[in-house]
């Protein structure tokens, strides 16, 4: 098993299919069906952003999934202190490789990166209907800090 940084936006776009398809299945009124071409173009447009890091997890040179993280700095305000965090945009493991610990290995790698850059907090969010991912993050020591609610009109 190997975790590396990648700028291969075409590979990230193809590995995105499983997580995007899940989002579409859970929330078809919110998400479009997976479209490789448009997702590839999106990742190509952001891949060189210095705040973004894409981690690729492979086994025997076979890509299993990825994590997309962002270095964020929240400035001090009248209400809050300033803080630097790593925000996890996405983790996607292909369907045949799920439940084998690869997602947890990616989370440990993200924690190593946070320590390397003296970042004391990792943030993320997930869709409420995705109970599996809720359980995954809980198992990996993450706690709910804030909840986002909405009302369709």
From TrEMBL:
Keyword list, A-Z: Transferase
PROSITE patterns reported in the protein's UniProt record: GNAT
Domain of life: Bacteria
GO terms assigned for molecular function: acyltransferase activity, transferring groups other than amino-acyl groups
Lineage summary: Bacteria, Bacillati, Bacillota, Bacilli, Bacillales
InterPro entries: Acyl_CoA_acyltransferase, GNAT_dom
Name of one Pfam family that matches: Acetyltransf_1
Protein name in UniProt: GNAT family N-acetyltransferase
Residue ranges of domain N-acetyltransferase in the record: 10-153
């Amino acid at each position: 098993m190997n975790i590396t940084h990648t700028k291969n936006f075409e590979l990230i776009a193809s590995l995105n299919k499983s997580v995007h398809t899940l989002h579409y299945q859970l929330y078809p009124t919110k998400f479009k069906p997976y479209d490789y071409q448009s997702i590839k173009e999106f990742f190509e447009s952001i891949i060189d952003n210095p705040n973004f890091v894409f981690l690729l997890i492979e086994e025997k040179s076979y890509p299993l999934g990825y994590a997309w993280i962002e270095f964020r700095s929240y400035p001090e305000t009248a209400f809050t202190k300033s803080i630097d965090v790593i925000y996890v945009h996405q983790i996607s493991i292909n369907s045949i490789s799920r439940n084998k610990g690869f997602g947890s290995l990616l989370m440990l790698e993200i924690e190593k990166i946070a320590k390397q850059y003296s970042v004391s907090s990792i943030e993320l969010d997930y869709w409420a209907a995705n109970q599996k991912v809720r359980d995954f993050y809980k198992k990996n020591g993450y706690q709910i800090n804030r909840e986002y609610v909405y009302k369709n009109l």
